[in-house]
């Protein structure tokens, strides 16, 4: 199984945090009708229904995507901050926090996806889950690469 040095793992964790931040911004932007098209496209793909009308129509739906986008962005910022500091000084504890939080999201989001009739959302969630936890799980405990 491949392994990562601490520096490689930190870079991977930061990348995953930036993915979350970007997705959070994309989601929050959908709160404004003129900026909802990219999020609407993502929803159509996840639900395998490209013929659907705009999925974010009501003020309540726009409020919900604004809130969700902010939460996702905040989650990404938190993971980035962990990677910048705590992860370098205590990688096992920080990594456990990242994996635990990500697993909680994955389980609850997956159950919610099934209950809402959008079980196919689990497929991209597996990708997100991998991006978020693999840099932590593949960390070898080494501080830097072994000399060649």
Walkthrough of the structure:
The longest helix has 26 residues, at 59-84. The mean pLDDT is 88. The chain has helices spanning 6-29, 37-46, 59-84, 86-89, 91-115, 122-137. The chain is mostly helical and 148 residues long. The chain is elongated.
Terminal CA distance? 19 Å
Main sheet record: none
> Shape from CA axes?
elongated
Strand content: under 5%
Low-confidence stretches: none
Number of helices: 6
Order of helices and strands: HHHHHH
Instruction: Return the average pLDDT rounded to an integer.
Output: 88
Write the layout of secondary structure elements.
Blueprint: H1 6-29, H2 37-46, H3 59-84, H4 86-89, H5 91-115, H6 122-137
Tag the structure with descriptive keywords:
single chain; 148 residues; mainly alpha; 6 helices
The gist of it:
The chain has 148 residues and is mainly alpha-helical. The protein has six helices and no strands.
């Amino acid at each position: 199984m491949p392994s990562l040095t601490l520096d490689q793992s930190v870079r991977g964790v930061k990348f995953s945090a930036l993915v979350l931040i970007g997705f959070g911004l994309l989601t929050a932007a959908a709160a404004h009708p003129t900026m909802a098209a990219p999020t609407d496209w993502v929803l159509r793909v996840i639900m395998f229904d490209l013929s659907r009308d705009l999925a974010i129509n009501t003020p309540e739906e726009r409020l919900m995507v604004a809130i969700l986008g902010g939460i996702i962005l905040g989650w990404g910022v938190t993971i980035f901050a962990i990677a910048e500091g705590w992860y370098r000084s205590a990688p096992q504890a920080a990594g456990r926090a990242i994996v635990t939080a990500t697993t909680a999201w994955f389980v609850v989001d997956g159950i919610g996806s099934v209950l809402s009739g959008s079980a196919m959302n689990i497929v991209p969630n597996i990708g997100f889950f991998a991006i978020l936890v693999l840099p932590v799980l593949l960390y070898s405990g080494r501080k830097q690469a072994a000399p060649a």
